[in-house]
Amino acid sequence: MTLIKRHRLPTRLWHWVNALAVILLIMTGLQIFNAHPMLHWGKAGNYGDPSLLLIGSADAGNGRLQGITQVLGHQFDTTGVLGVSAPGQTAIAFPAWATLPGPRNLALARQIHFFTAWIFVAGLIAFLALSLANRHLRELTPARAELAPRHIWHDIVQHARLRFPRGEDAARYHILQKLAYLGVILLLLLMIYTGLCMSPGMNAAAPWMPALVGGRQSARTLHFLAMTGIVAFILVHLAMVLLSGPFNQMRGMITGRFRLPQ
Amino acid sequence: MTVPTSRRALLGLGAATLVAGCDRLATAPATVDLLGHTEKLTKAAQRLLIGRTALAAEFDRADISRNFRANGSINVDDIDYQADAARGFPDWRLEVTGLVKTPLSLSLADLRALPQRAQITRHDCVEGWSAIAEWQGPQLGALLARAGLLPNARYAVFHCADNLGGGLSEGDRYYESIDLIDAFHPQTILAHRMNGAPLGIPHGAPLRLRVERQLGYKQAKYILRIDLVDSFAALAGGKGGFWEDRGYEWYAGI
């Protein structure tokens, strides 16, 4: 069995630091969201104003609570998951298992969120700079021919049939991978941008930043939507790792050594 | 302890242990210390980017929010306050004390007679909502210049009439503080008018602070006294504010 060198040290280091940071940011972010479980569009938004998303609760009679989620005016019963968490029948938007800290604690969630944000931003900048220098970003950039719909469709079919590249072909990135990785990097950059848009201090430094995306509450909504995009990426990414040889993939991202599947 | 039997229950127990572990780690003294340093880094970075005088965004009349939720205390549980409020606050005084050359004691009429600044700004609550309103009042900087600061004055502390903590101890009373950069910022005003009318009781009548480059909890309401100090050590929890004593950042620019 021959092992090839697959992932460079900066890529591996950033991957794990970033993975941990993103998970902490999502879990503390959901806790922060719980303090105002609504999403608005525009410069300002408050209780009583129109909302794109609202997670709340209502009395369902006989002393029980009903979890309610409203998306673009459509109402769903989400008791047990959103609005009302199962065991203690607690009225809370995202359940304690999805948030950090588990119990309601906006102050601590914010502190961990901003601490982690510094690590996340520093890591992303270092990764992008090194990836530009060591040509990793170039490996991720699609060639013109790869962007042809026929080529993309072919890659989708291959993925759907769980036919993954073999031999030397497994040592490079294919179009769906390139689009997914570049896409998630763009989402991570959007997280930084929209995050800064919510800071009143940064608003004074750069009022054009929230204005460019429609206002502070729009930025908050985009911050949330980009988060859901990142969660979707993580789920698909983990599924692909599991389906394409988890041991080999994990070794590749930890030690850098990768066995070319035959 | 009951033994979990199903796979689901076991997974639940595992997850609960993990989450409990995370929570213990998050509240450990070393973590709290580390997170405190983050606040200093954020403040230093923002001050570097913003500078002393950059203004918070100001909006048009058309942007003013229809409903501006009053948060925190929405009244003062004091019979004298209620009586004074009912008559338009003729007996209310603002005291400026501490590290100043000339302590001041001003009535609402005195504050109205000072040069005024009006600004339509966005109030950003730490919870995540925001609302836009017009505020009017004298600039804090002008008032402090009149009192004359002593060289060792570093912070302005706002002592308020409301008792948000609900208890009887000093730490239950609302208070806030800002440094002199924000105190002398042109948009930092003592607002006695909101949206063209006298400030309402839920919003902190007769006088509240507007420090526009920070979050809502810095905008102290029902202000009775502004005390100039060189440290927070002698105040309630020692962190410089009611919410700061409860874990929130003193620098609320983020």
Automatic annotation (TrEMBL), chain B:
PROSITE patterns the UniProt entry points to: PROKAR_LIPOPROTEIN (PS51257)
Pfam families documented for this protein: Oxidored_molyb (PF00174)
Cross-referenced InterPro entries: OxRdtase_Mopterin-bd_dom, OxRdtase_Mopterin-bd_sf
Domain Oxidoreductase molybdopterin-binding: 91-230
PANTHER family: BLL0505 PROTEIN, PROTEIN-METHIONINE-SULFOXIDE REDUCTASE
Name listed for the protein in its UniProt record: Molybdopterin-dependent oxidoreductase
Source organism phylogeny: Bacteria, Pseudomonadati, Pseudomonadota, Alphaproteobacteria, Sphingomonadales
